[in-house]
Fold each of these.
Amino acid sequence: MEILVAIKRVPATGGRIVLTADERAIDTRHLGFTVSPHEECAVEEAVRIVEAGGGSVTAVTLGPEVATEQLRDAMAIGADRAVLLETDGREWDPMETAAAIVDAVQAQAAAGTPYDLLLFGNEAADTGDYQVPIRVAVALDLPWVTGVKALELRDGVAVARREAVGGGWEEFELPLPAVVAVKEGINLPRYPSLPGRLRANKKPIDRVAPTARPSGPTMSRLRLPREEAHEVEILGRGADAAPRVVEVMRTLGVVRS
Amino acid sequence: MILAFVEHADGQLDRLSAESLALARRLGAAVKTGVEAVAIGGESLAAAVGRHGADVLHLAQLDDGDAYVPDAWAAAVGDRIGALGPEAVVAPGSVRGLEVLAVVAARLGLPLAANCIDVHPGDPWSVTRQRWAGSLLEEATLEGPVKLLSAAPHAFPADEMVAGATDARIEPFAPTIGERERRVRVARRLAPETGGVSLTDARVVVGGGRGVGSAEGFAMIEELAGLLGGAVGVSRAVTSAGWRPHTEQVGQTGARIAPDLYIACGISGAIQHIVGCKAAKTILAINTDPDAPIMAQADYAVIGDLREVVPAIAAALRRS
Ligand SMILES: Cc1cc2nc3c(=O)[nH]c(=O)nc-3n(C[C@H](O)[C@H](O)[C@H](O)COP(=O)(O)OP(=O)(O)OC[C@H]3O[C@@H](n4cnc5c(N)ncnc54)[C@H](O)[C@@H]3O)c2cc1C
Ligand SMILES: Nc1ncnc2c1ncn2[C@@H]1O[C@H](COP(=O)(O)O)[C@@H](O)[C@H]1O
């Protein structure tokens, strides 16, 4: 089973977001970088499938040179190789991102080892465009499903389960090859081991120059949502605050009598 | 014309669809054009859709009835775009709304702006959309002969129009659906697991973060939740450590909750956690650090070690 898993480098913002002076990006000078938890789970799922049934996992990202850090992270938990669709740092829109991933998938097929399964995160952590996996599936005429929280492969069929509106689950069956976008909760990703990290440094990263074809939406500026100014009322310190807490709970009407 | 894709459950217009009709109505007024709706099945929606401002309800008649066959639903919407030439298509910010519109966009080769909170028609159209699940906003321009947009959940009112509402006129249509569009469908439905207070319906949620310290530490969080008839919620630090299941995670990649009271114990208040709980009416933070970011969101706080504070609150509740 040949599996492609697509990840996107994003800043690990903590308690608040600070923008650059031109308001066109997050100020990342004091931040680390990561990928969406959904994508961490996609990598873990791919590695588990290959551990159980053989094959290989390729991680792909479209982003600047520094995004090799996220590809190494994926290889540290078990991806076999990686492809960097290298950009000059401009933010690519979801249409051109999908088109570049499609090109990479087709190049792999032309080389004789087509992917059987394309795994994605459900939505990117930063832009949350909710469309790259579907655009890839439509362009390649592949069956697809999003929001997946349980995945099983049986005889060339992917059985994928996701939460249904109004509770419970809905299950889809997709003939492979297929596109599957997963959500955090599908598995609990392992932490990379030290030997895993060392091995990752020796694994190959293919660099490809993707074709730019901007189409939008085109970001003009970022801004923080307006927050209503409000003061926190300190009810006290330590255990002594408990009676005041219960008083507040009473006024809120949440204490059961 | 502005075309709104609407969904329904048990014959009722669903809430997010009502919100997206509010966006469609706004756009219709701005461009001085009418609003029409398109749905898969759902004769009973004519009155509701009319009260939300649509003149016509285009009803797709599919061989699969109203079973969810995503590509077929997208083909039906695409069929009406071809036949009616709307200026824009608006979808609800639901799982199905987002994915059906994404297929439509991919097939037409058009850009799509997901989770918009504001839209201004013009040349070009400008949109404000959510990034980072709403922690950050993006102002962007949107091109294309048909503007494709989805409404962010809870960014538009779900209210009906007050004046001038009549039932929408039903216009059935039967799009041609190929075999490839019917490849993927809901093969089976599984009933929800029962038992316990559900996180998203609970009036009180007691949240535990890394500060709880261990899986065992959650006994006191569960006890407090139990005393209040509430549910346990957790941060990602907790699920990543394997202390609690992901079904309890609150935040960007977990559940969005809106209880009357959220008690955040040992949670720092990262933006990805806050987007999941900011709809709570009241937030009480229990934290050793008076400068934790959660304090900027909380209405009340207790500064102290949760391992002392939480049992003391439980004891006081039991006494009262
Ligand atoms: C794309 C993305 C998506 C994410 N999605 C989510 C999500 O859905 N949900 C989520 O929660 N996170 C999410 N995160 C992670 C998030 O950024 C934070 O890392 C996480 O919320 C931190 O959890 P925490 O507050 O429990 O831990 P910490 O940030 O480590 O905070 C622990 C807090 O406990 C306090 N504390 C310690 N000991 C005690 C004590 N004895 N008594 C009282 N207080 C104590 C400390 O002062 C501190 O404030 C996401 C991150 C990314 C990048
Ligand atoms: N720049 C990128 N590089 C690689 N994969 C991406 C990129 N952008 C989006 N994706 C993939 O597409 C998924 C959905 O992204 P989006 O449609 O942008 O919300 C992500 O979780 C990734 O798996």
Note: The mean pLDDT of chain A is 96.
Amino acid sequence: MTDARDLDARTRADEADVARARAGDTAAFAALVRRHQDRVFGFILRMLDARDEAMELTQDVFVKAWQALPAWRPEARFSTWLLQIARNAALDQLRRRRVVQFAPLDDGLDVADGAPGPEERYASRQRQARLEHALQRIAAEHREILLLREVEDLSYGELAAVLGIAEGTVKSRLARARAALLEHFRPSAGVRDD
Amino acid sequence: MTSNCPPADALSALVDDALPPAVRDALLAHSAACPLCAARLAELRAIHDAFQDLPATPLGFDLGARVIARLQADAPAAAPRCPPPRPHWLASIKRFFNDLPAWRAALVPLAGTAAALAFGVVLGGMLLIEDEAMPSGSPSATLVAMSLFDPVPPGNLCPRADACAPKGSSR
């Protein structure tokens, strides 16, 4: 979880850099890019499950952000606004593909080794792999809301703004997304517990 | 799930801590007593925990420099879009036609005044035209037409004897 004080400091830094970038300061915009590149890339990578494509699209997202800078309002956090652009770009790319992709389990995603013992390390790796695998098998609509909530830690209000839906719809869509993910995440596909 | 069990989106919202305190407490109390809801809640928490364990996905290089280089290469197309300034002369013409109705209201009396002045100047100029019959340099040659403004003798239509008689005619 992000520390609230860190978040405030980052938000203030973003606002200051946006103001300078709007005046044409490209160094300020470069600072914004560096601060948010990994987050945007990570989201797009998990949406597309293709590293090269995600890298190119991440660059496109920041170019679009530069062009749309005059339209940004401080009511929304800059990072949330960026994720909205990233989300639209990823969905456009998925529409262009127009095929269902079943990515190999180990494609481009390194599994971190953070558990203390060998059995726990193995279990952790298995769990991560199962999650990545399950994410690529659910609908893009469910994948995006899960990534934005679970990884990007957006609130229900921010999710509503990014996705252009009501907060009530956020709640029900998240529930359906989790149910869909569970179908593929459970260690053994078996009887549903209804 | 039994009919006493909460809806699926309530358990999901519980994982997000997105419920009012009273609702949250009631849900937790129910889950503690309901094996089905307890199992469901455990699954939802498991995927939540799995998300937290996902590895970071750093790009691995400085995208800032690349983006700036691309913006500079595409400079005319990539500049922050502000509405392009209109050429000054175009703005002036547009302003003139926008203001035309107001100008029309002011122009009519002005035009009438100008026309009256011009007519007066023309008439005055005509008054200074020399009559060819008058000897040049004659003091009375300069204001021939001024006789138009002289009082007309009673019974006369012409202000002077020579004002109406054609040249060469005898009276």
Note: The two ends of chain B are 135 Å apart (CA to CA).
Amino acid sequence: MAELKFAKSHEWVRPETGGLATVGISKYAVEALTDLVFMQLPPVGKKVKAGESLGEIESVKAVSDIYAPVSGEVVEVNAALPNQLDTLGADPYGAGWLVRIKPDDPAELAGLLDQAAYDALVKS
Amino acid sequence: MSSDVLPVWWDPAADGPANMAADELLAEEAVRRDGLVIRVYAWSAPTVSLGAFQPFAEAEACAAIAGLPIVRRPSGGGAIIHGTDLTYAAAVPKGHPWGGTPQALYDGLHAAMVDVLRDHGFDARLHAPSADDPPADALLCFSRRSPGDVVVRQGDAPAAKVMGSAQRRLGTAVLQHGSLLLSACPRVADAARHVGLAELARGRVDWTARSLAERWIAGIAVAGGLTTAEQPAAFAANLGERAAVRDAHFRDPRWTGRR
């Protein structure tokens, strides 16, 4: 399985075979939000730029934007997830994936953090 | 290191969309000033503000609040009936000590209000979760209980929630909306009417909205090691076109009815 990359805004990306990139939210971010109650994901076909809002997630007290870690087109959405938000906490890097993106520029991935750099970020 | 100045705007009454537009831009101001900023404001008419994802149809169908204008906040949480409350917006950059987690800013601002209310004789505290808590998805904020809400106990009666807040966590800043219920709102039916400080004080009212807010902000400043700086003009006075764009967004029925 390919190494995860992370955005500073706490989304993760996993490059997949076929050039797609799976996107999710880090375990740290899910735990910080606590008690998730609602999620809105983008429609398939939406074009996003890195750093733009990809969706929104609400916990009991806060609404947070989910940012696209790479630019591209949303080609698949985990449509079951908004009705099974516990999955985000139970398996954030597996069944808790959000969308699959067809990146415009795979080289953008190189600008993201690796696991060690992300771990340092959340500890700082 | 964050700014050691706490700018405070005491803003005149405005309608819902204008207030929401100003609050969203307040978050940018927190980033620009690199520190906590607070805006205290009023409403030009009693108004219901809905949480970012609350179903509009549920509010529209609620007979107890019928006839009141509805605006949708960018922040989460439940619906608030404004008019007899003290409303504030506060914002910090994400890197601020109170910006890291939702509960940090929530508890920081609420703990300061607990101190103020205790000084006025209320048995106030931060709410701790309990099995007896009402449903978390009730339409109205003051019908819900969340960890850190400001509640006031009176004898053996269930504690009354008098202050609740909710956040919008943006890319670089956190915006927190909050409301202190000063008295029960006479414009709504009993089903939506919650007791406020005036009713809980039972005639022993030795405060005004302004005096409570001033003492609250002073407490926040002490907790944060900040010096309060009252701003001479309304926050929206110098925003120009940026405010107009956001105002239009919050007036758009597509935003209000987004869910």
Note: Residues 16-33 of chain B form the longest helix (18 residues).
Amino acid sequence: MTTTVITAMHYCVPSRRLTNLELIERFGERQVKSIVKMAGIEERRVVSPGETASDLAYAAAVTLLNDRGIDPRTIDLLVFASQTGDYQLPATACVLHGRLGLDEHCAAFDINLGCTSFPYALSVVHGMIVAGVAKRALLLNAEALTTVIHPLDRGLVPLHGDGAVATLVEPSDGDGGMLGFFLGTDGTGYHHLMIPASGARVPRSDATKRDEKDETGIVRTQEHLHMNGAAIFHFSVYKVPEVIREALTRFGVTMADVDLVLLHQANRTMVQQIYRALEVPAEKQFLFMEKIGNLSGPSTPVVLAEAWRQGRLRPGSRTLLAAFGVGLSWGVVLIEWPRALAPAVQGPIELPAAAS
Amino acid sequence: MTRAELRLIVAGALEIEPDGLQEDTDLRQFEAFDSVGVLSLMIELDEKAGVKMNPEEANSLQRYGDIEGLARRQGVELTD
């Protein structure tokens, strides 16, 4: 066995909706209109008090396992990729291992990455299966980013939502699989997207809890997410197309060999700028953020799962998926779907009240 | 490109009348010149004038004249 294949995906979003009408009341009509025009986001799903990213991941995982009739005790690798885990320690994967009733021979650990967590974690899971460490892996990409965004941050609140995706990865029998991974980092830009007081470098204190207003009117504390919008935008629309071109070269394919190009759903304008720079034809594009917002890490697997649900993944076709953001980092993966592609996991995608 | 055309691009991004833009006009007086407005400027200037702003340039913009200067430095000839 030389590669792996995604055999099922399912995603879950919170039931609570944050509409533009609510945002207009909070930030004013002009601000909301201009950000909606740029981002193309009409509504976000946000966690309610008490709900966590792992609750969303649990609900997505249970639906996936039930849909495929999989005994949880056959899962031998669980990876939880998130920056909003339940605890600093233990790993949230361990908590989910217990909740899901997985076997004691199942390895479980977290990966701390944001927007690029899907291609990175997928490459880890793929590598462990190819190396013979695991046979059936459950990858959970989950984020409750709205819990670390100041409610009066008029730049970030309108952009982001919460969600989780469960992805089942298994050995390929030769029909389809991962054709290549291309990962990278520019750590000199770590400060462009960060929570300053969130660990050992800047311990939390009364001072880090104080509201601060910057010159553009954005309100936040040192314990909330900070974004240098201009830097992230510049990185996304100029660096990412370069990265994708390099990935295609490394994979030995051209855009003509790819049937669908999926990008991190950061915001509509950014995604369209990247599509334009790469001259991706309209029939190879797919956007899914209007009703859920930018989910950070789960964004790319959600757009992939949704493309599957909407019948955009044809048996034997190839999908190029690229994620980019916090780090700064990027990840590109090329996937060939099996000729015997299973139907997508359907059913409710909202977090059931009982799961939280 | 004429200076009037460049003014029109900037005015469109900031949702203001182009007549309100002179070299010494302080962009920070406009309500739309916030983090989203700066991103709109970056997009519009690239798409319509071929002017690319790096993050430092974008974050240090203060006066309309800064944008004309940036365009000239990138080889855009501005005529009256």
Note: The longest helix of chain B spans residues 35-49.
